[in-house]
Specification:
Elements (H helix, E strand, L loop, with lengths): L8 H8 L6 E3 L2 E7 L3 H18 L4 E5 L2 E6 L10 H14 L3
Antiparallel strand pairs: 1-2, 2-4, 3-4
Helix pairs in contact: 2-3
Amino acid sequence: MSRVEPLSREAIEAALAELPGWTYADDRLQKTYTFGSFREAVSFIVRIAFEAEQLNHHPELHNVYNRVTLALTTHAAGNRVTARDMELARAIERIAWVK
């Protein structure tokens, strides 16, 4: 895999303005979603898996009961945030709002 350039902090902050609830810390984008049940949380994870596979860009996932915490970073950019992470975050937001 070729090297991908990380985004500047300014570019990340500008993109975060359109991604409610997402934060930037420790060189990664992060967000926690809370659902009504474990089943809803796992369903969300499965939907993310299909989108991530299509984009060939996979998030770090952590699930406890009805909460799913995601972290996005790009290995090919030295584990920093790139446009690929922003694209996946936007896709995850679309999934989160589909009922």
